[in-house]
Write a structure and sequence with these properties.
With 268 residues, the chain is an alpha+beta fold. The chain folds into 2 domains: 148 residues, 2-Layer Sandwich (Ribosomal Protein S5, domain 2), CATH 3.30.230; 109 residues, Alpha-Beta Plaits. It contains 9 helices and 10 strands. Strand 8 and strand 9 form a beta hairpin.
Length: 268
């Protein structure tokens, strides 16, 4: 079995308050790119996980990896040998681990069906995992696990992802949020929410990783519809009207900043 773990984007991410349980109350617009990590599973006497790919070496604990934990928490027969091709940077605001776990859920669903209450199992692995199981555009509320459907009016939109190759842990970014409620996400279709929304974690993330500002400036100079940080960073994205613009932007960024990681694709 083979599955793509689609890169997750937060087209908008509004932080409304800190909760007593230590988490944050969010309103976010999830979208997914048509590329990401790749997973392959074959039957085996017991579960095992092998990581390969550009960023595979950064996953140092295969047994603690979210893929292994997702597999252990779902009925899937005797055992699977899973190869994870890690193409997305780690700790990058793309939900890479959550997307990997979501791909495991889809493979189990195809082979055996998902058990009742799978949504709880998904949310126990991470706040982004429930959205990543379907990897479809949706609204996330609460900690991001309460999902609401939204018509996907932006499918096919060209997108360029750029990361300065600097990992950024989620916890410190949320801790750096200034606590100011700047209001709810806008109402309307996906495009309206994306263009009129914001990412409330961006300022704190830039304070921790100033290179994010450089990435946003570079993307902003390519005349996108929108340039914004995704999730807790450090990856930023730019949306474009057509693929020719996105391809030209990709070339421009590559020439000006050859050390940065890039991914060109379309929204699913």
């Amino acid at each position: 079995m083979r599955e793509t773990a689609y890169a997750k984007l937060n087209l908008a991410l509004h932080v409304r308050r800190r909760r007593e349980d230590g988490y944050h109350e969010l309103e976010t617009l999830f979208a997914f790119v048509d590329a990401g990590d790749r997973l392959e599973a074959v039957p085996a006497p017991r579960d095992e996980l092998r990581t390969v790919g550009e960023f595979g070496g950064e996953l140092l604990d295969p047994f603690g990896n979210i893929v292994a934990r997702a597999l252990a928490g779902l009925p899937h027969g005797q055992g699977w040998s899973v190869t994870l091709e890690k193409n997305l940077p780690v700790a990058a605001g793309l939900g890479g681990g959550s997307a990997d776990a979501g791909a495991v859920f889809r493979m189990v669903e195809a082979a055996h069906g998902l058990p009742d209450g799978w949504q709880h199992r998904a949310s126990a692995l991470g706040a982004d995992v429930p959205a990543c199981v379907r990897s479809e555009a949706c609204i996330g509320l609460g900690t991001g696990t309460e999902l609401q459907p939204i018509p996907n009016t932006m499918a096919g939109t060209p997108v360029l992802l750029v990361n300065p190759r600097l990992p950024l842990a989620t916890g410190p970014v949320y801790a750096a949020w200034d606590g100011v409620d700047r209001g709810p996400m806008p109402q309307g279709d996906m495009r309206t929410i994306a263009l009129e929304g914001r990412n409330d974690l961006e300022a704190g993330a830039v304070g921790l990783c100033p290179a994010i500002a450089d990435v946003l400036t570079a993307l902003g100079e390519t005349a996108p519809l929108l340039a914004r940080m995704s999730g807790s960073g450090a990856t930023c994205f730019a949306l474009y009207e057509d693929m020719a613009q996105a391809e030209a932007a990709n070339v421009r960024i590559a020439e000006a900043h050859p050390g940065w990681w890039r991914l060109l694709g379309r929204l699913r």
